[in-house]
TrEMBL record:
Gene: hisC
Gene Ontology biological process terms in this record: L-histidine biosynthetic process
Aminotransferase class I/classII large domain span: 56-357
UniProt catalytic activity: L-histidinol phosphate + 2-oxoglutarate = 3-(imidazol-4-yl)-2-oxopropyl phosphate + L-glutamate
Highest taxon in the source lineage: Bacteria
InterPro entries per the UniProt record, alphabetical: Aminotransferase_I/II_large, HisP_aminotrans, PyrdxlP-dep_Trfase, PyrdxlP-dep_Trfase_major, PyrdxlP-dep_Trfase_small
Functional pathway: Amino-acid biosynthesis; L-histidine biosynthesis; L-histidine from 5-phospho-alpha-D-ribose 1-diphosphate: step 7/9
Record GO terms (molecular function): histidinol-phosphate transaminase activity; pyridoxal phosphate binding
Modification N6-(pyridoxal phosphate)lysine, positions: 220
Lineage: Bacteria, Pseudomonadati, Pseudomonadota, Gammaproteobacteria, Chromatiales
UniProt subunit comment: Homodimer.
Protein's name according to its UniProt entry: Histidinol-phosphate aminotransferase
Amino acid sequence: MTEVEARVARWVRPQVQALEAYQVAEPGKAIKLDAMESPWAWPGALEEAWLERMRSVSVNRYPDPAARRLKPLLREGLGVPEGAELLLGNGSDELIQLIDLAVAGSGRTVMAPGPSFAMYRIIAEYTGAEYVEVPLDAEFGLDLAATREAVSAYNPAVTYLAHPNNPTGNGLDLDAVAELVAQSDGLVVVDEAYAPYADSSFLPRVLEFPNCLVLRTLSKVGLAGLRVGVLIGHPAWIDQLEKCRLPYNLGSLAQASAAFAVEHQEALDRCVAHVLGERARLVEELPAVPGVEQVWPTQTNFLTFRVPQGSADAVHRGLLDRGVLIKRLHGSHPRLEDCLRVTVGRPEENNRFLEALAETLAVAA
């Protein structure tokens, strides 16, 4: 061990040293269907108007720390209940980190069903909290009895409930969510990153409970590069979390672009409609590919599916060799053995994915 390595080992907290960094695949020239991004480039026909707006941004000045122009637009666009407050972050990840820093930490517990969003565990552990995972049921739905039992046993400071869930794609029973919020003494965060593609939302009910926040993002509707996350809830919670937010966390160009996008909501809605149309086609055609053993229902912009036992790595590699990058879930969680996840792409991308998958599975067989 070198002197530098020894010093790192001595001073970096053990919780951090025990973690593995989150890995993001490099797509190269492959069709990129691994990260739940919108495949339709924004702003499209609005590009000149958007660029004109960007020319008015004074990048020599710090951004508005209160995002005073953007927040009212988001309030209206997202249908935020009257009386709720907003906190904006550099993506949902930063907001999860703020929550754990403010509410969890050493000696406290963060809980979530599993399998679910990997950052719930990663952020909990590097902020010093104990992380508890409660298994989802056989169809990846919320196991209400087991989760209620875990709430009683661990009294979590923060519970994350992803609706719809990533990486499985299914929505949760919102009546069951309400029961868990009502039972919990700690904070419950309903993570609705995929709300534009879902059939229901907990946002209208966020103020019914004294311990609930709803998390949203603009990343899944075509604005992933802006990194704009939105946390919504009682002002008392938001006021405390604001103390942990760095003052200039959302850049001026991101704020101006997000405001422009929300002002032209119809363009975002068209992208969502295109995704929903292609999703319906994949839901029908993916199960018909020989070798695909199971496709789970989805309320997101991706589909999770299972291939024959022991073949997930080879299928993932075979798709990449054929120019298509999707997400390998196999190895990330025991419940996801032999599973892969594909983001809904443009029609020609989905066609190529289906063709490449059929070719790869035929070779694997």
